[in-house]
Structures are given as structure tokens and as C-alpha cells.
């Protein structure tokens, strides 16, 4: 073991090891430079631990980014919150709150309650309530046949 993680320390140690032909290292640029300077003839490869660590991170990132598409592909209509990560759970809970609020607004719009009154009752912005009122008018308008 070397006393520290400084590239100069690694270079000094490597200079004393001319028999080394292959250096397994992490992806740190300082170590790459130290190895190239100390043993220019030696090949450099990523060590197994860092390969697995990087592959694991890449895999988990890809899965997290595609969970919605995965759930659609396997036909999962409902989510089990126990299977979500903490970040996904927070996102899902926010989604449920928004859906509930939007349903209340849509219900009041369909009852003919004014935008001003819906804003007063729900505490939501005029912009949000107006958006739902406009959607309601769009989907419930008379379609003229030319």
C-alpha cells in the first residue's frame, strides 16, 4: 500500500518496479499520467472493482430513466409504492396530490362553479383553474359538421 493517493507517490513507486507490464488502475487521470511517465511500456487497464462499479451505476441510471416505459411495456397499471426508491416515492406522491387537486377542480368546473369561486375554495392559482376550465370547454364543445 502506498502512504497516500498522490500521483507523484505512485510514480515514484512505479519507477522502482520496471518488471510491471500491465497496470490495473481506477479512472483517475493523475494515476494514468503517473503510470505513463514511470512505465511508458506498461499497458493500462481498468481494475475489476471500478469496472463493476461503473457498470452498476450505468445500469441503475438506465433503469431509473426508463421505469415509466418499462411499466407500460409490462402492463403495470398500478404502482406498488413499497417497490419505489425514496426519490421515486416522493415523485409519485406529488403526482397523486396533483391528480387529486386536478380532479377536484375538474369536478367544480363541470358543476358550473365560476373560476373565481374555484380559486377561492381550493386555493389553487387562477392560471391552473383557468387551464382546467379551458380544457373542459374544449372537450365538451359542440362539433360542427360541415
TrEMBL record:
The membrane-spanning stretches of this chain are none
Q: InterPro entries from the entry?
A: Transpos_ISL3 (IPR047951), Transposase_DDE (IPR002560)
Q: Which domain of life is it from?
A: Bacteria
Domain Transposase IS204/IS1001/IS1096/IS1165 DDE, first and last residues per copy: 2-70
PANTHER family according to UniProt: TRANSPOSASE FOR INSERTION SEQUENCE ELEMENT IS1557
The protein depicted here goes by the name Transposase
Organism field: Pseudorhizobium banfieldiae
Amino acid at each position: 500500500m502506498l502512504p497516500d493517493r498522490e500521483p507523484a507517490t505512485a510514480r515514484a513507486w512505479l519507477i522502482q518496479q520496471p518488471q510491471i507490464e500491465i497496470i490495473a488502475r481506477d479512472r483517475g487521470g493523475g494515476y494514468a499520467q503517473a503510470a505513463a511517465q514511470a512505465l511508458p511500456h506498461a499497458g493500462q487497464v481498468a481494475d475489476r472493482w471500478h469496472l463493476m462499479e461503473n457498470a452498476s451505476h450505468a445500469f441503475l441510471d438506465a433503469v431509473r430513466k426508463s421505469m415509466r416505459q418499462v411499466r407500460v411495456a409490462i402492463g403495470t397499471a398500478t404502482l406498488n409504492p413499497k417497490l419505489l426508491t425514496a426519490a421515486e416515492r416522493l415523485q409519485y406522491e406529488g403526482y397523486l396530490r396533483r391528480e387529486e387537486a386536478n380532479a377536484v377542480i375538474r369536478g367544480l368546473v363541470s358543476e358550473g362553479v365560476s373560476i373565481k369561486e374555484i380559486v377561492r375554495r381550493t386555493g389553487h392559482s387562477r392560471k391552473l383553474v383557468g387551464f382546467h376550465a379551458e380544457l373542459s370547454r374544449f372537450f365538451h364543445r359542440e362539433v360542427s359538421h360541415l
